[in-house]
Protein 1
Amino acid sequence: MVIKKTKLWLAVTFSVAILTSAAYMIHRKYSDWKIYGGSGDNIKYSALKQVDTSNVNQLKVAWVYHSENEDRTKYGPMECNPIIVNNTLFGVSPHLKLFAVNAATGKEKWHFDPADSSDNKTWARHSVNMNRGVVYWADGDDKRIIYTVGPIAFAVNAETGKLIPGFGVNGGVDLRKGLGRDEKGVSISPTSPVIIYKDLFITSGLVSESTPGHIRGFDVRTGKQKWIFHTIPYPGEAGYNTWDDKTAYKRMGSTNAWSGFSLDNKRGLLFAGVGSPTNDFYGGDRWGKGLFGNCILALDAATGKLKWHFQTVHHDVWDMDISSAPVLVTIRKNGKKIDAVVQTTKSGMVFVFDRVTGKPLFPIKERPVPVNDAALGEKLSPTQPFPVLPKPFVRQIMTEKDLNHIVDDSSYQEIKSRFKTYRSQGIFTPPTEKGTIILPGYDGGGEWGGPAIDPETNTLYVNANEMAWVLNLVKEKSDNKKSMSNLEAGVTLYQKNCMGCHGPERLGSGDYPSLIGVEKKYDFNQFSELLSTGRRMMPGFAQLSKAEKTAIGSFVLTLETEQAKPYTGTAIKNNNNSKPSYSFTGYNKFLTKEGYPAISPPWGTISAIDLNTGKYRWQVPFGEFESLKKKGIPTTGRENYGGPVVTAGGLIFIGASADGKFRAINKKTGKTLWETELPAPGVATPAVYEVDGKQYIVIACGGSKWGGKSSDAYVAFTLPYK
Ligand code: HEC
């Protein structure tokens, strides 16, 4: 009896211990937000559950932090997912100041402005572009934030906000160095934060079309480069033979992991997704599959050695960069637990692999795609990979029946007649001069916000766009003439370098401004400076020579005396003389004359996918137009950027939408339980954390994406009681 009792007692204690330790582990693992995306898994999950489906409608603003000290009407974008370490929240302002605030009150502790606290002027000049987050690293009293501003990775003391002198040169590492190319022509500016593995920080970056996006590991103490993984392989390296041109490794650019990383810390495995190689829309000078373009990569985090890869698009000519970091989860299949890595894509696919072996966990089929009537000199891949499961989370082809019916008949007839002139055969339709429909769009499908995963149910939540765009190619003039004027050269150089954003008539396109009349704002020197450094969403053009800039300037700034002078720069050739070359005319949305998408709704969605089975739990339209709602039209969904966060409290928190709202959604049903208006759209992923037993949800509200409101505010929400 006694023995039995003891046994029972032991068994009970033992199972309680297991239960509590398992719960404790899950709790410990996901209850803080010390890393971009919440954890190395990057699944944007929080185990906190004080805020739940029953009380979420009582959320109140806890604090608002204005991250710029001057009042402006227009701030830049703010896409930062802040981190919270020891009750301090670290984030970045629209002008890329780094700040530390008390995470419970929003009161500033310090800020670091790269423009005025550096003794190296070039750092300030590169206060460009975007920053989606920062990382924290500590060893005893040495506590650092590493973050990037343009091409510089800074190490800032996490307690004082001062640069750490022993890191790089006076606290900054110049990432233009060490890529194996002439630094003068290199333009790099990481938008996603670096990731830490042991005492290394790892980065790739947003790069110009002539800069390779190699992935590199650096010593986090000294800033010294430790390893490099060539995303465009060198002779003798894996993947080298997938480029027909054996000199591609010397000249090809992009192929960059701009969307960040995830890390299996236990195995020392780094995961990255790679963008397309140079020339987003024309590959006549880069025949072949072009590894590691558009690949999911598993690398040894300590050495940068390749473990495995999978290419999601062969020979990409649609700008189908892998647009978010892969995410890590343990799924269940046939009663077994498998450590998996999951990748959502711009085209709306979900790829699921065994994290260690790279084997697909759902079948992936190579299917034939149209290759006829491609641009001259193009050699498209006859097949492309399609996961059989999960099914795509957006429409991948637009037919006449997908045209927008909610506009009046004249508007409908107008889009219908235009649609008939375009080529629309699904996501892999060859780009053409007469216009090719790009759906779900240049910006996704899934975008840089990336998906969230609930590890309790292995449900993946992904927000997406369904926008049809029109891609038009134009043949570049091949100006191999011996002599030409600055104006002639300027027009050709403009087509090659600027037209994609500023449009064929310089009227701008998409989010990019018109250049008509810029001569009133800039003299040649200021213009030339702007081209060298870039600014926010405009990349730098460090590779252009003075003569080339003079030629472009003579055209764009209408400098008539300069225009007439002979062009003195190097002959403007196509990348490969024997073939024609193409540019594209800009990022043009296919819209109705009222400005609504020409494709029928939904224009934005959130999907919940069971990763164990590959089946959908639900899908709902996400976001709305007030104007259409007033007319009684059911929720249409709307363009959105920035990811969701899922919590143990049964909720999905998401801003992202162009409608400027911040929402809490029931994770089981997709139903919106709470919403509030933000100071400007929260084009960012929220962070969830706890201070003194109180749960907070914070989001950066930068706006600036759709020409509407912009702000410098970080807004934190909490329950009004403990
Ligand atoms: C990837 C898209 C992109 C490319 C390529 C690009 N630009 Fe821009 N450009 C922008 C954006 C975005 C802005 C607005 C920058 C800001 O927010 O300050 C801009 C701004 C400018 C401005 C200032 C406009 C103003 O009203 O102040 C000039 C001038 C300009 N670009 C010239 C050029 C030239 C010349 C080229 C080619 C050498 C070029 N850009 C290539 C995106 C681009």
Protein 2
Amino acid sequence: MQNNFFLKIKFYYPILFAVIINSAFADQDSIKAGEQKAMLCTACHGVEKSVNPEWPNLSQQSKKYLVDQLHAFRDGKRKNALMSSQAMGLSDEDIEDLAAYYNSIPADKGSLQADDDIIALGQNIYRGGIYERDVPACISCHGPKGLGIDRTGYPKISGQHSVYTHNRLKNYKEGYDIKDSVGKNYAIMSSISFRLSNLEMKALSEYLQGLY
Ligand code: HEC
Ligand code: HEC
């Protein structure tokens, strides 16, 4: 029985290998195509880092999250004066390539800028949540280094501009009433932000900017 199993594995091994190599090349092609298509995006998002703290860094961002957001902008489910028009003309293939490209860029390390007590407040909530208000620990979904979980579309949130993160958390909070019409992942984050005060959101944003 066991022998049989290993024989089978041996037989399929070359095929498996070919499939892996093939998909690795396909990924490389998509990244290359994405790099070309990202020329216009770079003006605002840079490569590793964007120049304006209101514009998010996209480097090393979870691929699924990037795909989801570009679809959301294109379909009008996420709106922004600067960004919405950028996504309007993108095909599904463009979105895949752009996401593969930004996902492949190693991110810069972020740096802390706020006072120690603000950072400490952010770190406490990040690691332990707020029990009395049913705020879960951010670490449980975004991970100890804030890298997220690509498979489920949970984004990387470490090393991000604190100004952008703070705005984004406020947007999730404001979207509480319409959260279910936007999508499952949006609803998760909207319900969490709804229970945070402005000071707590600010503290989390400052802590996250320096996490890596
Ligand atoms: C004129 C400036 C500008 C250009 C050009 C631009 N963006 Fe954006 N982008 C923004 C801003 C501003 C936001 C933040 C929107 C918000 O706060 O909701 C954003 C957000 C995003 C997000 C969401 C990131 C996150 O962490 O949620 C993605 C993905 C994105 N842009 C991809 C792109 C791609 C791909 C291109 C090129 C096709 C592009 N952008 C071009 C300004 C720009
Ligand atoms: C149960 C899982 C879960 C927990 C816990 C969680 N998040 Fe999230 N977070 C998500 C998901 C899913 C998204 C993507 C939502 C979307 O698609 O709009 C997200 C998105 C975000 C974003 C947007 C990133 C960007 O680039 O725009 C920020 C910031 C964020 N979370 C911060 C936090 C903070 C701070 C906490 C703790 C208070 C937290 N999250 C707890 C699942 C979680």
